[in-house]
Amino acid sequence: MADEYVTQERRTTTEEPAAAQPTHTTVIHESKSSSGGSGLVIALVLLVAVAGGFYLFSQTSSSEVARDNAIADAAQDVGNAASQIGDAAESAAEGAANN
């Protein structure tokens, strides 16, 4: 007796339609990079430095003008004193000539 085996083979094929969306997703996250306010601090320090330099330069200029005026006044006083000495010398010379 020959045994016969009957086998049934059942195959099920499922086909999916082509994907409308890609199977790989890339996420790009863009954000504005900030320096944490250091740019503002640097600008503020620069502004203070420029203002301080301008102030010192203007003070130096005015002190130079004051110094120049003081020298001119001193020179004028020396000139006046020399003139008075010259006048006194003339008076003494005239007084000696008259005696």
Key terms:
single chain, 99 residues, mainly alpha, 0% strand, transmembrane helix, membrane, transmembrane
Structure report:
By secondary structure, the protein is mainly alpha-helical. It is 62% helix and 0% strand. The protein is built from 1 helix and no strands. It starts with 37 loop residues before the first helix and ends with a helix.
Order of helices and strands: H
As a whole number of angstroms, the C-alpha radius of gyration is 53 Å
Shape: rod-shaped
Taking the sheet with the most strands, its summary is: none
Number of helical elements: 1
Average residue-wise pLDDT:
80
Distance between the termini: 186 Å
Low-confidence stretches: none
Name the beta content range. Answer: under 5%
Residue share in helices?
Answer: 55-70%
Number of strands: 0
**Helix/sheet category:** mainly alpha
Keywords: Membrane, Transmembrane, Transmembrane helix
Transmembrane segments: 39-57
Biased composition (Low complexity): 15-26
Region (Disordered): 1-36
